[in-house]
């Protein structure tokens, strides 16, 4: 029986009427440069230095060369070559022997050459754009760089990405990989927040691994490396040398899940512990704990990899899923990382915890939205693994979360608030300040939480809101139907709380968050918000990177708004219309520099529609441009001083 390479190997007879004896098949020796794969030398959980790196290459072979019992997925045994990579680290190459003969359709041979050339060439520009506007945004909720969602910008822009954006993609990936153990001195697979140990008075000690940050880093790598075979025929080649990195991360998280800590253990809430030492041991100092977004984000990071392995369907992949990711027959069991996290989220999402800024204990929109998405995605994985009972339970809990989102919508101030104190309802609306430009802009109303509820006086409009939109909408198609129902049935002001980037309530919330920084940072004093502002976590923030004084702008927050606007732009193009509701009049009036009429519906192809989506992209570009002014050869710190423009807080974050 002959085989062809088609994502993963299938008997040719399954999808082609050609017989095995077809004259189109010839015996050929494939050149080594097509079959050489670099892989870091790492031991797997069984102690084997080759399991996980591709030391056995799927082959197209005659039955005489098949290994016994492998009539469906045969392999070629490869020899190993030791060498050093470009940074001097010992690595291995898996190389097919020179004399190996394969039964190959000549067209497949040509496809292999094409795939190889494609893989070696520059990535398409939209990946780079996603890295810059998505991945680079993700620390602080992450010290990471995450590309949760990579919208198809090709519909909005006719020209390729600028050279600086392509360059930044390479810098971003390089910085990520340098912060993953063992390179940085951490255990294998652990992501380090920063190499900063607090060795100077102006530097904090970030030499820890955060569950949230690590998950968002690997979510970014998923977007870059785990393209399904149906989307990219180069997927197998492009990920061959990276497969060990994902497995190392999963195994490192299994060990952390099994480590008792101040939040508990595997059975008593320990999965919600926010950070650990870089050797995987528990951090015992005072901290804002528990943080319930960690298990949800970790599940979201690993689930795409599980689907990738299931699609590939190699026997060792299925075993890895069962032993290290998800076993339907084991609950709260050591090593079953995703199953453990999903059970934790499903049973405890309604309990209070600290926010992603590690400051407020209560119920937080970001955390609850990540929990909802984790349960929805977890249900899909559970169904694929024949765990239908768990899948139904996860979906039931996700529905309950969706029904609870109304608590975070302020009907008087007309925006989403980021959190609610435990056991209390949102505080009453008060007037914060008057408009600065006569009657051109509406008076801004905000919530202030008083000290009586245990929270400091603070508006509940912060950077977690755009980050929620970015991370929730990794796949816009999954929320498009919900949004369409909301927009067309209720004019966008009522209906399901989808938190879709084009939902009028979300747009109003983003607008409110941006305007909260008016007249706050001197570095923004010479421009309007539509020209691109540097943004911070929240207006009243005091954290200056080391202590408490006056906080500054953050790269991640500035980038997150740009990403939300790119997502909204992509969504409007996909839906084909924009409805101007009472909620979005101020936003569109500013974007277009003219008053708009409530009730207008701009449809695709009209001048109004095309101008609106074009301007939305322009404004997003300007937020990235504002940030880029403070980059240093593509690298970034955590904050930019509100007056001097100097970097604040540690360098070397994975986001940089």
TrEMBL record:
Q: Where is this region: Disordered?
A: 1-27, 480-501
Catalytic activity annotation: Hydrolysis of terminal (1->4)-linked alpha-D-glucose residues successively from non-reducing ends of the chains with release of beta-D-glucose
Please list the GO terms describing molecular function: glucan 1,4-alpha-glucosidase activity
GO cellular component terms, semicolon-separated:
fungal-type vacuole
The UniProt keywords, alphabetically, are:
Carbohydrate metabolism, Glycosidase, Hydrolase, Polysaccharide degradation
Query: What are the boundaries of the signal sequence?
Result: none
The keyword Hydrolase is assigned to this record: yes
Q: Does the keyword Amino-acid biosynthesis apply?
A: no
EC number of the protein:
3.2.1.3
Any idea where the GH15-like domain is?
172-644
InterPro entries given for it? 6-hairpin_glycosidase_sf, 6hp_glycosidase-like_sf, GH15-like, Glucoamylase, Glucoamylase_active_site
Residue ranges, compositional bias (Basic and acidic residues): 7-20, 487-501
The Gene Ontology biological process annotation of the record reads: polysaccharide catabolic process
Family the entry assigns: Belongs to the glycosyl hydrolase 15 family.
Protein name according to UniProt: glucan 1,4-alpha-glucosidase
């Amino acid at each position: 029986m002959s085989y062809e390479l088609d994502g993963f190997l299938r008997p040719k007879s399954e999808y082609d009427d050609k017989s095995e004896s077809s004259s189109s098949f010839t015996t050929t020796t494939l050149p080594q440069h097509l079959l050489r794969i670099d892989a870091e030398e790492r031991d797997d959980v069984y102690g084997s230095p080759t399991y996980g790196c591709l030391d056995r290459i799927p082959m197209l072979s005659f039955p005489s060369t098949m290994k016994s019992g492998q009539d469906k997925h045969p392999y070629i045994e490869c020899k190993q070559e030791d060498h050093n990579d470009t940074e001097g680290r010992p690595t291995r190459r898996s190389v097919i022997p020179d004399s190996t003969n394969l039964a190959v359709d000549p067209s497949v041979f040509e496809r292999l050459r094409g795939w190889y050339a494609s893989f070696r060439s520059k990535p398409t520009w939209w990946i780079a754009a996603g890295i810059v506007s998505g991945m680079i945004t993700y620390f602080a909720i992450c010290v990471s760089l995450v590309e949760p969602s990579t919208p198809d910008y090709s519909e909005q822009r006719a020209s390729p990405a600028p050279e600086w954006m392509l360059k930044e993609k390479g810098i971003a990936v390089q910085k990520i990989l340098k912060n993953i153990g063992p390179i940085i001195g951490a255990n294998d697979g652990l992501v380090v927040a920063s190499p900063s140990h607090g060795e100077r008075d102006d530097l904090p000690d970030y030499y820890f691994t955060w569950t949230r940050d690590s998950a968002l880093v690997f979510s970014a790598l998923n977007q870059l490396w785990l393209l399904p075979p149906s989307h990219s025929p180069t997927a197998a080649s492009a990920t061959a040398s990276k497969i060990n990195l994902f497995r190392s991360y999963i195994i490192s998280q299994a060990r952390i899940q099994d480590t008792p800590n101040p939040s508990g253990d595997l059975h008593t809430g320990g999965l919600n512990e926010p950070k650990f030492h870089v050797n995987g041991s528990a951090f015992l100092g005072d901290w804002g704990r528990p943080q319930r977004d960690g298990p949800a984000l970790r599940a979201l990071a690993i689930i795409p990899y599980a689907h990738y392995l299931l699609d590939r369907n190699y026997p060792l992949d299925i075993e890895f899923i069962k032993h290290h990711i998800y076993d339907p027959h084991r609950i709260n069991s050591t090593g079953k990382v995703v199953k453990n996290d999903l059970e934790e989220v499903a049973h405890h999402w309604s309990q209070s915890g600290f926010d992603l800024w590690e400051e407020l204990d209560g119920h937080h929109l970001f955390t609850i939205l990540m929990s909802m998405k984790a349960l929805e995605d977890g249900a899909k994985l559970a169904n694929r693994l024949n765990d239908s009972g768990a899948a139904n339970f996860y979906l039931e809990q996700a529905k309950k979360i969706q029904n609870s989102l109304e608590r975070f919508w302020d009907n008087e101030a007309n925006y989403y608030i980021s959190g609610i104190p435990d056991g209390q309802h949102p505080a009453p609306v008060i007037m914060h300040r008057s408009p600065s430009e006569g009657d051109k802009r509406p008076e801004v109303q905000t919530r202030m939480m008083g000290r009586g509820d245990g929270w400091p006086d603070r508006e509940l409009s912060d950077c977690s809101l755009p980050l929620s939109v970015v991370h929730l909408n990794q796949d816009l198609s999954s929320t498009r139907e919900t949004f369409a129902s909301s927009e067309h049935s209720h004019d966008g002001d009522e209906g399901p709380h989808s938190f879709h980037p084009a939902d009028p309530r979300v747009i109003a919330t983003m607008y409110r968050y941006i305007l909260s920084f008016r007249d706050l940072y001197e570095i923004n004093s010479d421009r309007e918000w539509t020209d691109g502002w540097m943004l911070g976590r929240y207006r009243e923030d005091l954290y200056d990177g080391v202590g408490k004084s006056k906080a500054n702008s953050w790269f991640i927050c500035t980038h997150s708004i740009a990403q939300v606007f790119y997502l909204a732009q992509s969504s409007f193009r996909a839906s084909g219309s924009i409805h101007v509701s009472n909620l979005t009049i101020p936003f569109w009036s500013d974007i277009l520099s003219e008053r708009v009429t409530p009730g207008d519906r701009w449809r695709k192809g009209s001048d109004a529609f095309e101008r609106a989506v074009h301007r939305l992209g322009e404004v997003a570009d300007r937020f990235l441009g504002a940030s880029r002014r403070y980059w240093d050869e593509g690298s970034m710190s955590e904050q930019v001083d509100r007056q001097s423009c100097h970097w604040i807080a540690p360098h070397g974050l994975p986001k940089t």
